Design the sequence.
């Protein structure tokens, strides 16, 4: 159970960087049998899901390289990241009671994705403001790499990834609280 929650946190936090990369990685891992998808989420490992997530990931990656469009995308991807984070966590939780499973998915997965998404949005706005958008492709490349690397690592080493993400989330939350003051 703990490993499943940490796996969900790792994948969900990746959805805060990019919505569709962790979904694509989860789909590939589910198709190959590397990700233990629960019964109601077996569709994530289907060929159709793989094609849909792959196409969406490619479009999302390309769009983030266009300065100012990337800031507009943040307004769209913020709620999508919450949904993707919830879906990713819920898909691996071995909880039989649906209400508990979804509440845990929303709180753990949606919360992890939301915190990361908020941090990356602030980073991108700062980059746009200070570099007039010229630094945004560098930020986008780093976020793509983090989403990909963290997603793969979450599946390969869920406990270590989960702990690292929790430490990072606490650090980021402390920074956001300081900025708010």
Sequence:
């Amino acid at each position: 159970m703990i490993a499943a929650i940490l796996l969900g946190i790792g994948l969900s936090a990746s959805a805060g960087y990019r919505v569709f990369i962790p979904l694509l990685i989860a789909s590939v891992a589910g198709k190959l049998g590397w990700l233990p998808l629960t019964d109601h989420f077996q569709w994530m490992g289907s060929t159709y899901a793989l094609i849909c997530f792959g196409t969406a990931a490619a479009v999302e990656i390309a769009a983030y390289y266009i300065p100012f469009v990337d800031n507009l995308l943040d307004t769209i991807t913020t709620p999508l990241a919450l949904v993707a984070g919830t879906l990713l966590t819920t898909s691996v939780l071995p909880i039989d009671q649906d209400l508990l499973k979804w509440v845990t998915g929303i709180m753990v997965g949606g919360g992890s994705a939301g915190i990361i998404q908020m941090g990356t949005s602030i980073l991108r706005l700062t980059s746009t403001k200070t570099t007039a958008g010229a630094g945004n492709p560098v930020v986008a490349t780093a976020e793509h790499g983090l989403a990909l690397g963290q997603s793969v690592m979450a599946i390969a080493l869920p406990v270590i990834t989960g702990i690292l993400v929790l430490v990072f989330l606490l650090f980021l939350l402390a920074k956001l609280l300081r900025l708010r003051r």
User: Anything to note?
Assistant: Residues 2-180 form one domain. The chain has one domain: 2-180. The radius of gyration is 16 Å. The chain is about 80% helix and 0% strand.
